[in-house]
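Troubleshooting log. The previous structure file for this entry was overwritten by mistake, so regenerating from the original sequence record. Sequence copied from the archived sheet and checked twice against the printout by T.R.
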Amino acid sequence: MTQPVPALVLAGSRPGRDPLLVGTSLPSKALLPVAGQPMLAHVLAALGASPSVGAVTVVAQDTASLARDPAVAARAGEVRWRDSAGSIADAVVHAVKESEGALFVTTADNVLLTPDIVEQFLSASEGFDVAVGLVERSSVARAGHSTRRTWLRFRGGAWSGANLFRLGGPQVIPLVDFWRALEQDRKKGRKLIGAFGPGLLIGAALRLISIEGFARRIAGRFGLTAKAVAIEAAEACIDADKPSDIPVIEAILAARQAEASASSTAASASASSSS
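Regenerated output below.
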């Protein structure tokens, strides 16, 4: 049996005023209610129901305000809380060093995370030094989700991140340190790709390289193996990044709830008819 992978939830705030917090008195986006529950509570519920996830650590500038929230506390269980005044990369490097082995990383605004998404990602990424979960644009279009994402275009499709990362151990720290310098450009696809050199930028611009090839070549520069995991659930790339995302997310959550209720009703009716 595969050993459960410890998880790190990034729940900190980026510099500047978050547009999702305008008009609220909330100290953190992680506490913003979505479908009646704080964002972080949704994420902790998904991780808690995922068999492949081990110990969960939440990192933010001020975790006390998160831990005090009743809805979050109800989902927290054995969650460990860690304050960090540094950057996202600083928090990840610290967690990688502490875990020694593999580490699963996601974010507090990944509200649509489900155990199925987590299990698919962790199963597909096992054995690689670094893995990233992505969703292809056509699958979002087929699902009918109306959302604006940052799309990275490669041969074979355009991809958006699902805020899912697997880091295999301390050997990935040089790559994370390199990523530290790119944090401010994470929404600028071409600039991000260009940071890895003109060859990769031209290859991506002319669609000469696939997302899988791109991941392998980047990781290879650091002596690492990499996997770009295509997530089956189209909504996996829809995080709560801006106000227009919230109604989209809440509609998906409502549809899930309706489907679950219908399945429960059908199961009860079947049990009653067979008794």
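The first helix runs from residue 39 to 48. Archived copy saved in two places this time.
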